[in-house]
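To whoever picks this up:

The parser on our side crashed when reading a file containing two proteins. I've narrowed it down to the boundary between the first structure block and the second sequence. Both blocks are reproduced below exactly, byte for byte. First block:
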Amino acid sequence: MRVEWRPLANEDLASIRRYIARDDKLQARRFGAELRSRVKVLSDHPELGRPLDMAVPPGVRVLVLHENYLAYYRIIDAGGEPVVQVLRVKHAAQERV
C-alpha cells in the first residue's frame, strides 16, 4: 500500500527537524529519517496504529513513532487503490489532530 504524506505532516516533520537542528544538525537529519522509516511500516501494516475515538475526520488512527512523537493517519480509497495518508506528526504533549 502506498503511503502519502499530506502537506501538514511534512510541515510538522520539518518543524521537528528544525527544533532538533538548533543543537545538532546531524541528529536532526537522522531523527527525521527515523520517523519517516517508522511510518513506512504502514505500507505493509496499515492498521498497526490504534483508531482514535471520535476522530475528526472519521477513520483517523494514531501510531507511536518514538516515545514522544505520534503519527496521525487514515486509510483512504484513491480510485480503487487503498492509500495511507499521514495527516500530522505531533509531539505527544501537543493536542490531537
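<<boundary where parser fails>>
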Amino acid sequence: SDDWMGRWARFVRASGLDVVAAQNLAGQGLMPSHGDDNRDYWAPSAQQICASVRRLADEAPAAQAIAISGAGSRTLSLIGALEGETERPIFGSDTALYRALAIAAGVRLKPGILGAITNA
C-alpha cells in the first residue's frame, strides 16, 4: 500500500540512505489493487518481480541499488540476472534474510551466491 511504502521510505531515510524512488507492483500497473484475500498480491510471480525491477531501474537511473521487499517476493533465482541487467545491486527481502541467517549460524557463503550482498 502507499501508506506502507511511505513508512518504509521514512525508515530507510532515517537510516541515512536516500530513497530515489519507491514503487509497488499495483502502482506500476503490474497487478490489480489488492485485497487481503488475493494471494497473487502477496506472492508475485517471477515475471512480475522482474518487470517491476526493470521499470524501477528505467525510471530511477540515479538509484545505486534496488530493494525488493515483501516476504512473498522470491528473488533468490532472479538476483544474478537482474543485477547483470540493471548493473546495480539488487537486495531482496528473502536473500537478505538468508544472509542474516547464515551469519547468525556462522555459515560462510560463497561470494556472489546471493548476488552483490555476498560480495562484500
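After patching the parser it read the second block fine. The chain has a mean pLDDT of 83. Residues 33 and 110 are 39 Å apart (CA to CA).
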